[in-house]
């Protein structure tokens, strides 16, 4: 005991050794507190935060929160033990308190940042909310947490009230507005996009001016990420969705129908009034007789001459349009309760455009393209039975056929001269 008392007296008499001993004791206490938090606080976090749904919460959330807690709890322990060490030099005591205060708010901001991240992940995984994103709000929350932490750290370092620090920021408000102008614009855009539900996760977005067409996979504060259909990624500033034109195809998927609006071109010289030969040729196609009877208003077709067709303006194109409309109405892949229109458009140098306007019963891309292809393949094949011709510009085979015909005529004329 005399030996220990001498050592204690020696340490107490030596200011440097006393301060060093106190620092070692504080470091040892901080390490013990950290180890206790590291090994035991997981159970506390799981019981306090996730007690109602333990089985649904993965262990990594507990570990992440416990790691953040184990960082700043030792700081609190060291700061509390300083009250029992009044013999430390005043400048050293102030320095340790300042460091503890700075570390406390740094670790506290990291803790709340982790909590916000866990909230974001939990929200996005819920089935009812899988198309909504709160990532922008979470990022704003993180920015606010870091700003508050920075203000408190400045107050600790300057030994002034946080109110004075906040009031002094008014002098540099213009500079802060300039620095964070993109963040503020993105925040406003994110709030408008999210609150009005004009854009959600999983929506098909198309921006022709930027060459973008794909699915929205992430909605953040500053950018919106789109996976294009060629599996490339595009990041567009959030504010661009308020200033630029884009198309959201999600409403089409929700309606359960997808529009076909496509034209084919006819040779205008093939359009003419009906005659008996054309009627007999058309009558061989199932469904045409009903359309002809409706156009003739119940008259006996045998008593109708070519003049009657001309006087009533019934052409082969008229019968073809009526037949095509009825044929589309009978298809199972076409919506019956939506518009089904076949109309002639304004003529052009490429011929007479005839537009098919209808809606498919499936919105899936493969089914939609299959239905559209089947419809127009049938149109290209059946149009000749109505004495109509498709228009297309002359190709190499056309010029080759003309050259062969000209050569044959020249050869025939030479033989006749001989």
Describe this structure in words.
With 418 residues, this protein is an alpha+beta fold. It folds into three domains: 2-159, no CATH class; 194-253, SH3 type barrels (Roll), CATH 2.30.30.60; 257-386, no CATH class. Helix content is 59%, strand content 11%. It is built from 16 helices and eight strands. The protein has helices at residues 2-13, 15-49, 59-81, 90-125, 135-158, 162-168, 173-179, 181-195, 240-243, 250-255, 276-283, 288-295, 306-311, 316-329, 365-382, 396-417; strands spanning 204-207, 212-219, 223-228, 233-237, 247-248, 258-266, 341-344, 352-360. Helix 3 packs antiparallel against helix 4 (90-125). The N and C termini lie far apart (147 Å). Mean pLDDT is 75; it is low at 10-14. It holds the Pfam family MS_channel_2nd. Residues 183-250 form the Mechanosensitive ion channel MscS domain. The chain crosses the membrane at residues 20-41, 69-86, 92-116, 137-157, 163-180.
Order of helices and strands: HHHHHHHHEEEEHEHEHHHHEEHH
Termini gap: 147 Å
Helix/strand-derived category reads: alpha+beta
Number of helices: 16
Largest sheet: 5 strands, antiparallel
Structural domain count: 3
**Neighbour order of strands in the largest sheet:** 4-3-2-1-5
Shape summary: rod-shaped
Question: Runs with pLDDT <50, length 5+?
Answer: 10-14
Query: What is the percent of helical residues?
Result: 55-70%
Q: What is the residue-mean pLDDT, rounded to a whole number? A: 75
How much strand content do the residues show?
Answer: 5-15%
